[in-house]
Design a protein that fits this description.
This protein has 16 helices and no strands. With 626 residues, the protein is mainly alpha-helical. The longest helix has 121 residues.
């Protein structure tokens, strides 16, 4: 990242706005290209907004454009840390007490929780933030200051809703998996409680508004009292004042009673229409049952009921859970979208651009598909799935045909074997044939006795079936008579209700009884559910206590080991520094010794050369002298 920055001019003739403008015009972007004049204007307005927000509550920094422009990189990081400390108590720390790497990692993690998206690669942005680059800090400050209330709420929620980053192999432990599930349940409860709190806070009326409403109502009351007193003073002189007052009061009461009766009439009409709809439905069911043939009506009705039960069981076991899971997934997506906070205009423009690009790509693919289908009439016309099904059915048909051919050939083999056995039996003589005939007669007698038993059982079942059909006819006729009597009684009851002016009372009473029964059942189920939940909560608390007690000695041992580890680590670091210093000194001495050895070896080589030279000269001299 290369950023050119002009220092603040020393002369007093430049104002803060001019300094910011001059600095903005010479700033290069993240990729080295200079920005335009429109970008510099936007940058100046953003800096002015930052200074304005920092001067307001709760910061009250009393800055000017010039003083803000003269801030050093460390002072800019302190301002960022101050804003983050306002959003979360965790960031109220002194930057001098922690290392720069730890500060930047903490800020980057908090920005990730706030869903801040820099316009460059995160590594580049982190490096720029570590250097205190204003081109990285100014947009971030502007983004946080203009969204301060929403980001404060998001930071508060992030403390409780962010998942813990644990390695995948740790989830294999049952205790950690159970604690993770319990944490998820607690987070869901926290979400519900926070949503309820937001609703209650929105419904709460401020005391000032209540006082204004009370003052307004007192003024209205005083005006009404004055108006009533003036009217009473003007009307008391009349002769029939009291009679007219009583008549007006009675008229008002009758009008109130009329409105109340009209409301009840509307409710009873709606209940009557609902009851008529149910009667029409039941009448249709009865007519369909009567239209069935009595000879096979019972079996057919049972079959239809079984089909309906199977259909309802399929809906209850498969279709409805699938739909419920889909709705829950959709709800989780919507909650995630709500918890992400407001979407900025820049994010909205990026999303729209992405959608338009995808639509353009989709149109291009559709055009290519249309051209391909126009060029190749045998192209895929949407019947690929049906062709696959037809191919599967054809393969199954071939398999069945092969099995049929095998069975046919096997039957022919058995027939040939039977004919061969019969020929062998005829070759044995008449005695063997008579024994075979006697064997066949015994088998026939057994078959005849079995057939007679089954015939008797069939007759018995047939008689029982006739009795059941007769009883069904009697019951069916009884049902028709009872329905006719019920209709006549219902008609008479309606006449009586109409005469008394309470039409629909019986249906209303029956509906109220059903509602009370269903309410009692629901209350009982709720009571049982609450008891089960309380038992589960007690069991979970007991398990947590037991596990805490079981982990207490291990935690104590871990603390002792941590203290020992710190001592050993400090001792190790000290010895390591001594070792490194000693190794450096030894290396330097070793290098010096190597240099001296090399010099000595060079001297030895020279002396050896000189010795051999002198020895050769001496040999020559001795030879010459002799």
């Amino acid at each position: 990242v290369r950023v050119s920055r002009l220092p603040a001019p020393p002369s007093a003739g430049h104002t803060g706005a001019r300094a910011v403008r001059a600095r903005s015009l010479c700033v290069h972007d993240w990729f080295g290209a200079p920005r335009g004049a429109s970008w510099s204007t936007t940058m100046s307005s953003d800096i002015a907004t930052i200074v304005e927000r920092l001067n307001d509550a709760p910061f009250h920094m009393r800055l000017s454009l010039a003083s803000f422009d003269e801030k050093s990189p460390f002072e800019l990081l302190e301002i960022v840390n101050l804003v983050m400390g306002h959003l979360s108590e965790v960031h109220k720390v002194d930057l001098r007490d922690e290392t720069p790497e730890r500060t930047i990692n903490r800020m980057m993690e908090f920005l990730r929780q706030l869903n801040f998206k820099p316009g460059v690669d995160p590594q580049i942005f982190q490096q720029a933030l570590l250097q205190g680059d204003p081109n990285a800090i100014h947009p971030m400050l502007h983004w946080m200051l203009v969204r301060l209330p929403d980001l404060k709420k998001r930071a508060y929620l992030a403390r409780f809703l962010l998942p813990y980053d644990l390695p995948e192999h740790m989830y294999a432990d049952e205790e950690i998996a159970e604690l993770n599930q319990h944490l998820g349940a607690l987070q869901e409860e926290f979400k519900d409680a926070h949503k309820e709190l937001d609703k209650l806070q929105q419904q709460i009326i401020s005391p000032a508004e209540i006082k204004r409403a009370i003052v307004q109502m007192e003024e209205d009351k005083e005006q009404l009292v004055n108006k009533i007193d003036s009217l009473r003073g003007r009307l008391q002189a009349m002769d029939n004042y009291q009679e007219m007052l009583d008549a007006v009061s009675a008229l008002r009461q009758e009008q109130d009673e009329q409105m109340r009766l009209e409301g009840r009439l509307g409710e009873q009409r709606s209940q009557l229409s609902h009851a008529e709809h149910q009667v029409a439905h039941m009448s249709q069911v009865v007519r369909e049952a009567q239209a069935q043939d009595l000879s096979g009506g019972g079996e057919q009705l049972l079959g239809q009921l079984q089909e309906e039960v199977d259909k309802n069981r399929y809906l209850c076991d498969q279709e409805l859970p699938r739909m419920l899971d889909a709705q829950r997934a959709r709800l989780a997506q919507l909650e995630g979208a709500v918890n992400e906070g407001p979407v900025s205009e820049e994010q909205l423009r990026e999303a729209r651009a992405h959608v338009s690009g995808l639509q353009t790509k989709l149109r291009q693919l559709e055009d290519e598909k249309g051209r391909a289908q126009g060029a190749d009439p045998n192209a895929d016309d949407g019947l690929g799935m049906f062709r696959q099904q037809a191919a599967l059915i054809a393969r199954k048909r071939d398999q069945v045909k092969q099995r049929l051919d095998a069975s046919t050939s096997e039957r022919e083999d058995l027939e040939r074997k039977l004919m061969a056995k019969m020929s062998q039996l005829e070759a044995l003589g008449p005695q063997a044939r008579s024994s075979a005939v006697s064997t066949k007669s015994e088998d026939f007698k057994k078959y005849a006795s079995t057939l007679r038993g089954k015939t008797a059982q069939y007759k018995k079942f047939k008689a029982a079936l006739g009795e059941l059909r007769a009883e069904f006819g009697v019951l069916h006729r009884t049902e028709q008579l009872l329905q006719a009597q019920a209709r006549s009684v219902g008609a008479k009851l309606q006449e009586v209700e109409e005469a008394k002016g309470i039409r629909g009372y019986a249906e209303t009473q029956l509906g109220l009884q059903k509602v009370s029964e269903s309410k009692a059942a629901a209350d009982e189920a709720k009571g049982q559910t609450l008891e089960e939940i309380s038992q589960v909560v007690d069991e979970i608390n007991e398990q947590i206590k037991a596990r805490k007690n079981r982990l207490a000695p291990q935690i104590k041992e871990l603390r002792a080991l941590r203290a020992k580890y710190q001592e050993l680590e400090s001792e190790y670091l000290e010895k390591r520094s001594v070792y490194e210093n000693t190794a450096v000194s030894l290396d330097s001495e070793m290098s010096k010794l190597h240099e001296e050895v090399a010099a000595y070896e060079e001297d030895i080589a020279k002396e050896e050369t000189r010795y051999h030279y002198l020895h050769a000269l001496r040999t020559i001299v001795d030879v010459a002298a002799s």
